[in-house]
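Action item from last week, closing it out:
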Amino acid sequence: MKTTLIGRLLLLSIGCLIVLLPLWYWAAAWFAAPPIWLAGAVMKALFPWAESWAQHGVSATLNTLVQVRVHGPQGDALGELAPDVSYPTYGYGLVLLWAMLIAARLTTRTPYWWLKGLIGSVLLIPVQAWGICFEWLRDVALLSGPSGAAWLGYPAWATNAIAYGYQLGILMLPPVVPILLWLLFNKRFVAALWLEAALAGAPRHSNAQKTIKTM
């Protein structure tokens, strides 16, 4: 059975993902540095309670001035909140983009695929930083308990906006943006896919018309 263009692309993309994922995870600490830095800089610039940030491998910690109640051996005490975020939760789109670019290269010899990959990698940094920022915000504004909420004093609309931003950052942006970038970088390939689909459907359509006429 002849493999279609979209079928070859999917099979090669899956194969590239299997190869690239372990390599990306091995180097994830280096890939995590730019989005973590950007997220930390944005948080510190926009929120006075964001004191500093630190990277520990693939994790990012935001040190805040937000006071929360902590359970200790000698009773409850107030402590400063320091939420952690894991970069791989938001960074896997980088592997997805490169896997699709390499698959398209192997399928149709698309030019400058490596340059598109570098540009796409840079464009994904703000997307990953968005997810990191909003997970920090979620932990501070929504999961810090009554003491944290009282310390911040945010209105309901602000906490709702944080919840929506977090859902967008964890569910939509990581998988969708790499695919949109791939479509933008491979317009000719996408046109070839549409043409193949149109040509594949044309004979069946004409045969159906002939059957109707003979009945």
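Closing note: DSSP finds eight helices and five strands in the chain.
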